[in-house]
Amino acid sequence: MSSKKPSGRRRATTRRRVPTATRPQALTLAAFLVVASLLAGYLALSRPDDTTPAGSAGKKPAAAPKPARTPEWDGRTRVIGDGSTSYTGPQKGQLKPEPLKPGEKPPQFVVFSWDGALEGSDHLFSHYRELAKQYDAHMTFFLTGIYLLPKTKKSMYHGPMHSAGDAAIDYATDDHIRTTLQQLTKAYDDGNEIGTHFNGHFCDAKGGGDWSVEQWKSEIDQFFSFVQHWKTNTGFKDLPPLPFDVKKEVVGGRAPCLEGQPNLLKAIKSYGWRYDASSPGDFQIWPKKKNGIWDFPLQMLPYENGKYQGLSMDFNFLYNQSEGETQGDPAKFPEWEQQTVDSYMAGFNRVYYGSRAPLFVGNHFEDWNGGIYMKSIDQVVKNVCTKKGVKCVSFKELTDWLDVQKPQTLTALRTLDPAQSPDWSTVVK
Hints:
429 residues; alpha/beta; TIM Barrel; 5-stranded parallel sheet; 3-stranded mixed sheet; disordered N terminus
């Protein structure tokens, strides 16, 4: 291991080295995410925008699997189990997936996703739910399962490799469990996706990267149990059931600290999940599948006017700007906020005027550096979701769209460099 703290800038290296964080405030995630921002070396995104395609058609892909046909809904709400969840029919307001016509330019998809999905005292869950509604957008909210488990019942959670009740994050207060349940209902009714951020948020040693397939399955099963039995666990009798069957609704997630994807992918196939957003980072290219599951990584964006590439997540901006200090120099906040907005917009513009590869943004509900990363997202949503040809969607909606495209079209799209604007008649046939 290197003892030198990373700068977040490019290195000419072919091996990924995990540096040692020098302060507790930097957290283990900092090292992981910043290393992810280094994985590219001097590859495609450091080249001029008019380079030849970096992608490769590779082997001929198998035809995309078709989602199982859902029986026609009879219009009746079906309460499930102890009344914590219910089935209220197909989710309303979803994007209708249609294959591209020959020569048609793809939509510019943008996915805003949130890890944790707790409605705390800052009311950020409700803020982004309302912002999405205002701009005709859908977002993905990755719920942490223990946020629905009272602290007095924490011994019910057995994180893999950890003692009963242990977690790397705080349990929610009873009031915040209640407000989170309310926001989950409203978010689903608004057309947003509910995914999973699993439970204990363990990283590094004994975290997801060390878990077996069976241990990941245990974590998933416990997530489902906490959502399916919140009424029993909390004793709340005055709230209605969540308006979805969680085992049908959840079709993907993001692992804490982006760790453990290889075994996680093996685990989730048995649950019928369709995508995973746990990859540590990749270029802004059209998605592909890993082990039959759509892979939606965080993405490399131009930081500081393109001096280097960094990940599309608030934590990576934090680490590069204030070295992991969650409240750095207030005098720098305006500059850092503008840098963050500029990086997101540079990444967006690169593909919007280029390959039209989807843009993935992954954030947390936080107040780091005076809340500048939340303010940045506010600006980006307003700037991009209103543009012609842009569809701000959930990961599930994007998955639906990808699954109805011709395999040869997706193969051709993956040959495009991010900033490459092709003659679409040569790509979409």
